[in-house]
């Protein structure tokens, strides 16, 4: 297959669109579009669903993505081996937005500085997207939120979920609970809705954001109630567990699909040590 076409394909996926991908590969948007069309014709399938300027992968596109990344990585490895240049080991890391973003970023940065032969590619996203990345082989290490004990993990920590609001009182029993939540697919959101419905409580989505900072601001502003892990509590938040149904714990898991590479093992160890400290740190009050 034409590696140049695969490079453009991966660039469109990573950039989220044809225009941004063109900037990455130093080509015009029309040239990138032509390359993707040529690739689709050679494979006899559609790779993207195009909706205005937004693009998303088809099922065939998702299947191709893992192969394309591996072929490009192998091509780079071959060039470096033949030319005698020192190989740079790329580690693809996935982390959730709502897990100690600032302090974890500092730890990751320190690791990168201490490993001159390693290049980190970090993706901060919702767990649902990170899980898909693991399944496609797009990530070497990832922290994901999940049901306890589901699947293999290098390490796992229990998450204690709490109902959190901007005031000490939850809505009255005859009022819908205004939920502040991550988008669909988030385990916290699913747990919240299932718990409320099992208890016969009505609910509505009052505020939705893919970013923790947005949810925290909405809570402090009094827009609703969120079900979050205790580490997400900041000054101005109030736990209102006593007035809402109980929710069982979830799990934060460190996933390392292939720990055969020494740099991957070292990064996983660094993240595990960080998580051990972070998960036992008292919540803000």
Automatic annotation (TrEMBL):
Keywords: DNA-binding, Transcription, Transcription regulation. SUPFAM superfamilies: Periplasmic binding protein-like II (SSF53850), Winged helix' DNA-binding domain (SSF46785). Signal peptide: none annotated. The keyword Ubl conjugation does not apply. The keyword Cell inner membrane does not apply. Gene3D superfamilies: Periplasmic binding protein-like II, Winged helix-like DNA-binding domain superfamily/Winged helix DNA-binding domain. This is LysR family transcriptional regulator. The lineage of its organism: Bacteria, Pseudomonadati, Pseudomonadota, Betaproteobacteria, Burkholderiales.
């Amino acid at each position: 297959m034409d590696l140049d076409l695969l490079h453009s394909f991966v660039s469109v996926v990573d950039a989220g669109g044809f225009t941004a991908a063109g900037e990455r590969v130093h080509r015009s948007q029309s040239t990138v579009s032509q390359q993707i069309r040529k690739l689709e014709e050679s494979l006899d399938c559609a790779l993207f669903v195009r909706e205005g300027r937004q693009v998303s992968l088809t099922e065939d596109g998702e299947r191709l993505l893992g192969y394309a990344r591996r072929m490009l990585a192998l091509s780079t490895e071959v060039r470096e081996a033949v030319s005698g240049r020192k190989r740079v080991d790329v580690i693809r890391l996935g982390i959730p937005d709502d897990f100690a973003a600032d302090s974890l970023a500092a730890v990751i940065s320190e690791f990168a500085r201490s490993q001159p032969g390693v290049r980190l590619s970090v993706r901060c996203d919702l767990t649902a997207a990170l899980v898909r990345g693991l399944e496609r082989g797009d990530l070497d290490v990832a922290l994901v939120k999940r049901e306890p004990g589901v699947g293999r993990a290098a390490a796992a920590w229990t998450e204690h979920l709490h109902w959190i609001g901007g005031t000490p009182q939850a809505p009255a029993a005859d009022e819908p609970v205004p939920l502040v939540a991550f988008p669909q697919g988030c385990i916290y959101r699913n747990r919240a809705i299932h718990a409320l419905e099992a208890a016969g409580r009505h609910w509505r989505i009052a505020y939705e954001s893919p970013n923790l900072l947005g949810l925290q601001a909405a809570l402090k502003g009094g827009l609703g109630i969120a079900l979050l892990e205790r580490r997400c509590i900041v000054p101005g938040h109030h736990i209102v567990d006593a007035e809402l149904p109980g929710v069982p714990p979830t799990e934060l898991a460190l996933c390392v699909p292939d720990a055969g590479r020494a740099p991957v093992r070292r990064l996983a160890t660094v993240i595990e040590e960080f998580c051990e400290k972070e998960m036992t740190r008292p919540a803000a009050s």
